[in-house]
């Protein structure tokens, strides 16, 4: 493919400032759309070539423009009746950001959080519905978005400041970013992992921490929470088995566990209802001391 990257057909009309190319019969790449023009999705559908490309050197600019376009589309779709569309756009945003995590691909995510917060942040019912809605084939993206929605709900319920709620929500959206560097067969599989596979899977929190630190864009608390979100207060978690955890890590770890049990069915584990899940986690709080009692109580209240 040389120095050219194929663009998804559904995203062709989002590009204006990035030039697009197509393949001529000779096999050479030729300019299809110049910089400064946008493809009309409806009018140009019949004449559009089957495959459209960008130059490798334009990839960072393309990601930035795509994310900005997604955020604009998201803002226009934030209506009480538009939850399915909002979830789909959010999946596109997260998918593009996580494809090759970098400063360029992640820098628009804070704006995404702002858009969702401004549209749904004070509406508990819509946040619950957003967390409960799902897409059929993008469970990894669903999980990140659902965790973000519940975290935003928690922040609003507990009267945290808008800035803190946004920061926590962004942390939730990014908490599993390390999985982008793992074998997809381990991340997406429906079966129980072998011990060796699970050892590899457990590296995702440390990998995610390093990705966020490498960007140099985000607050240190976000990187720390990503590193610690599978740690537990009794020292039974991973990757380091520590017991002194940040508030952010405790909250995201708790919501991550709740969302996973209520939305992720495996061949070896059936889905649990919210009530069953909270009772199970309650035992981990009271009997095992894995989670903070106050955070758990507040989560139960905001989910009621």
Summarize the SSE layout with pairings.
Blueprint: E1 4-7, E2 20-23, E3 29-33, E4 52-55, H1 59-77, H2 83-99, H3 103-106, H4 109-120, H5 124-132, H6 139-157, H7 162-174, H8 184-188, H9 195-201, H10 204-215, H11 220-228, H12 247-263, H13 274-286, H14 293-303
Antiparallel strand pairs: 1-4, 2-3
Mean pLDDT, to the nearest integer, reads 89
The profile of the biggest β sheet is: 2 strands, antiparallel
Order of helices and strands: EEEEHHHHHHHHHHHHHH
Radius of gyration using CA atoms only: 21 Å
CATH architecture of the largest domain: Orthogonal Bundle
What's the CATH H-level superfamily name of the largest domain?
A: Hypothetical protein af1432
Task: Name the CATH class of the largest domain.
Answer: Mainly Alpha
Helix count, per DSSP? 14
Strand order of the largest sheet: 1-4
The parts where pLDDT drops under 50 for at least 5 residues are: none
Task: Characterize the overall form.
Answer: globular
User: Level of helix content?
Assistant: 40-55%
